[in-house]
Specification:
By secondary structure, the protein is of the alpha/beta class. It has two domains: 51-376, Leucine-rich repeat, LRR (right-handed beta-alpha superhelix) (Alpha-Beta Horseshoe), CATH 3.80.10; 377-429 and 484-519, no CATH class. The protein has 19 helices and 18 strands. It has helices spanning 3-9, 13-21, 25-32, 37-43, 68-82, 96-102, 118-124, 130-135, 153-169, 214-220, 249-253, 268-277, 300-306, 336-346, 405-414, 430-440, 449-475, 497-537, 540-553; strands at 51-53, 55-57, 63-65, 88-92, 110-116, 141-146, 175-179, 206-211, 230-235, 256-261, 284-292, 316-327, 350-358, 361-368, 393-398, 420-425, 485-487, 576-578. The strands form four sheets. A twelve-stranded mixed sheet has the order 1-4-5-6-7-8-9-10-11-12-14-13. Strands 2-3 form a two-stranded antiparallel sheet. Strands 15-16 form a two-stranded parallel sheet. Strand 8 (206-211), helix 10 (214-220) and strand 9 form a beta-alpha-beta unit. The N and C termini lie far apart (93 Å). Residues 428-447, 476-501 and 553-579 have low confidence and may be disordered.
Length: 579
């Protein structure tokens, strides 16, 4: 032993124990075991080895396993000596089977599995696996994060079976948290395997779960989880549901409810609000969603009249709600100050910002303060700022206005703990516009998806009209018509939307005129044939008079009647250049 170790051993046990508790117990065990008997006794103490964490947190917040040599030494040398003390185990799912094979853990109650993959889940959460056989009546707290990208139906089926197996087999489970990843990869309900007539782990008190749609949420609230008090659900989408809840025991027992809806929904008022009204004993409520195509913005009056007035015990209400594509029928149009006034009148601490993209069509983002969630809904350049200490993930998106330097400075002040930032902005910054002006002579116009869709529809319309015109041309007997149209792009403004639309509308009008001239020309041909028939039966003097009449009807035709040739092109008006 060196002098440093001797000085440490001179400290009393209480001080040494306090120092060791500040360190990672896995690193302490791997470093100090075998140096001195006194250090071994302290390191193997029951209070020091109840929780074993074999993971480390990266700067972006993800969990990774410790170095392979540390894990190997810990599992082979140290873990067999402390397995009786372990009550909580935090481990990467890929090495969990190796940890299980080391020794049995008779006191294990809490388990956290990070980055679970479908192949590992298929082996662990089966009826005949050693984990289910030995620990299904022992585990009381289970936390799982899944990082698989579901593209195959077989993978999705395994995850669905894992959900059902956990709820069905672990009889003593009280706390369950399952982070299922991105719900957009699920094609069907995740809890469709739950039978309404079968008894499940009804003792679950806390449940946090990622699910596909509202049907999965209703399955959890139909009474089968009779002891449930806290439910945190992350739903991918809300759409039409046929499930009806008749047993309200779970709804009435809930004290904390959180719902985060990933995709914009049209059915918030018709499907979600009626369920919230039946949770009359709620004490804490959290709502995060985007609501589409309402006749008014979600404001303080709506939250009070439709939701909170039905919850007499509610004392904490956090919300992050965006009303998008709302067709406002009120006049004058409500502004941000009008929405803030409704919060003050109803006793909410909240802020908001309002913007309009078209006349009467607007977007309103409301959020409670102080903001305690780690994510906030997508914000635009109209964001007014604030202090959001807990937000780690943020998305900025604006398709009408560019993000300037002052806006990014505001974001830096408002989100000091930000880790991940996603940015979407189609507006070209000023410097890029100057480059385009130098190259093309003028800045390129900004086209939204609506403009492109309108241009596409005009193109389809032109194709239909041209095909109709060609078919009509073929139906005209033996008369050759040639059409040509030339569109010249302006070099100083490539792909000009307005110019293209003018070309399209001009071509449509000329096609209408073309149709009228076709009909008029066909009438003249018919009259000519009638005169020819009459001339065959009249006298020679009468025939010469009819020929003169036909030549007057069709200018440019000086040939005899029998030749049937027309030199002048009656539709030459299309052989022009459209500017």
């Amino acid at each position: 032993m060196d002098s440093g170790t001797t000085q440490i051993l001179n400290l009393p046990d209480e001080v040494l124990y306090l120092v060791l508790k500040k360190l990672n117990n896995v690193n302490v065990l791997c470093s100090l075991v075998g140096i001195h008997d006194r250090l071994d006794r302290l390191a193997y103490d029951v209070n020091f080895t109840q929780t074993i964490n074999l993971t480390t947190v990266s700067p972006n917040g993800s969990h990774k396993s410790l170095a392979d040599d540390i894990v190997h030494r810990f599992c082979s040398v140290i873990l067999p000596r402390i397995c009786v003390n372990v009550k909580s185990l935090i481990v990467q799912a890929k090495i969990f089977e190796d940890v299980l094979r080391t020794k049995n853990y008779p006191n294990l109650q809490m388990l956290t599995l990070h980055n679970l993959q479908h192949k590992v889940a298929a082996r662990i959460f089966t009826k005949n696996s050693s984990f289910v056989r030995y620990y299904k009546h022992q585990i009381t707290r289970l936390v799982i994060t899944i990082n698989d990208r579901f593209g195959m139906r077989s993978v999705e089926t395994i995850i669905c079976r894992t959900y059902v197996a956990i709820i069905m087999w672990f009889s003593r489970l009280r706390h369950l948290s399952v982070d299922g990843g991105d719900g957009s990869y699920y094609s069907r309900r995740l809890l469709r395997g739950l039978s309404p007539s079968r008894c499940y782990s009804s003792g679950i008190v806390f449940l946090s779960i990622d699910i596909k749609d509202l049907d999965d949420c209703l399955c959890l609230l139909d009474g089968r989880l009779s002891q449930l008090e806290t439910l945190l659900v992350k739903i991918h989408q809300v759409r039409y549901s046929r499930i009806i809840i008749n047993n309200e025991s779970t709804l009435l027992k809930l004290k904390c409810f959180s719902m985060k809806i990933c995709r914009p929904t049209l059915d918030f008022h018709d499907k979600v609000v009626p369920i919230l009204r039946r949770m009359s004993n709620l004490e804490k409520l959290t709502l995060c969603c985007r609501i589409r195509r309402q006749n008014s913005f979600i404001d303080g009056h709506y939250l009070t009249n439709e939701i909170t007035r039905h919850m007499a015990r509610l004392h904490e209400f956090m919300f992050d709600i965006i009303s998008i594509e709302s067709r406002i029928i009120a006049y004058p149009l409500p502004c941000s100050d009008d929405i803030r006034r409704t919060f003050v009148e109803n006793g909410y601490h909240a802020d908001c910002y309002v913007e309009y993209c078209n006349i009467g069509i607007g977007r309103c983002h409301i959020y409670s303060l102080p903001f305690t969630m780690d994510r906030i809904q997508c914000i635009t350049s109209r964001f007014t700022g604030g202090m959001f200490m807990n937000v780690r993930f943020l998305r900025l998106a604006d398709f009408d206005h560019s993000f300037e330097n002052a806006f990014f400075a505001l974001i830096a002040r408002s989100f000091p703990s930000l880790r991940i930032l996603s940015l979407s902005n189609t507006e070209i910054v000023d410097k890029s516009k100057e480059i385009e002006k130098h190259v093309y002579g003028s800045p390129m116009p900004h086209h939204s998806w609506r403009d492109l869709l309108l241009l596409l529809l005009c193109g389809v319309m032109l194709v239909v009209i041209v095909i109709w015109g060609l078919r009509k041309t073929k139906m005209s007997g033996g008369i050759q018509r040639s059409t040509s149209m030339y569109v010249i792009y302006q070099k100083e403004n490539p792909f000009p939307l307005v110019a293209n639309l003018q070309i399209a509308f001009c071509f449509i009008e000329q096609c209408k005129d073309y149709r009228k001239r076709i009909c008029k020309f066909d009438n003249k041909i018919h009259e000519r044939q009638m005169l020819k028939t009459r001339a065959a039966s009249d006298t020679p003097a009468k025939k010469s008079e009819d020929v003169k009449t036909v030549n007057e009807l069709i200018p440019g035709s000086t040939n005899p009647i029998g030749s049937h040739r027309i030199r002048q092109n009656p539709i030459g008006f299309l052989e022009t250049e459209l500017h």
